[in-house]
Amino acid sequence: MIFEILNRDNAEDYIAYLKIAMSEEPDMMTAEKIDEQGIKNRIQNPFFNRTISILAKEDGKVVGRIEYHFYGCMQDGYKMAYVDWVYVLKSYRHKGIAQMLFAEFEKDCARKNIDQYYLIRATNDGANRFYTNFEGVELSEVPILRKYLKR
């Protein structure tokens, strides 16, 4: 297993992975279609450069990814990370890939002296089993306000 940061050199591999994920579990995806040119444009857009995707690759093929970004609180200097997405292709699950992706992510957090990370987690049985195996975590049911500014 090798890990790479998503960039324009591996964008086609990433898009191929998304196509498989979308065909296997469209209900798990946050998009309704894959905007290939939009993805390639966003990879080079400075706004999206603050979002990091680590790709897990096996035999040259992307089989999983974790996407996250860092931010901080001006008042107290607390540094945080938010995990936007973690997904492993169905045929590669239960092989430790998601754990390895989180380990790579946590290495990046350590390099940047991050105090805490969080994510909005799925609550299905598989996700619950996965997240309860983490050390030093709290699982909570937190109300979330979400306002869409564009539709």
Layout of secondary structure:
Elements: E1 2-5, H1 11-24, H2 36-43, E2 51-58, E3 61-72, E4 79-88, H3 97-111, E5 116-119, H4 125-132
Parallel strand pairs: 4-5
Antiparallel strand pairs: 1-2, 2-3, 3-4
Ranges with pLDDT <50 over ≥5 residues? Answer: none
What fraction of residues sit in β-strands? 25-35%
Described by the principal axes of the CA atoms, the overall outline is globular
Could you spell the SSE succession in H and E letters?
Answer: EHHEEEHEH
Walk me through the structure.
By secondary structure, the chain is α+β, with helices and mostly antiparallel strands. The chain has helices at residues 11-24, 36-43, 97-111, 125-132, and strands at residues 2-5, 51-58, 61-72, 79-88, 116-119. The longest helix is centred in the last third of the chain and has 15 residues, at 97-111. The relative contact order is 0.14. The model has no long low-confidence stretch (mean pLDDT 92).
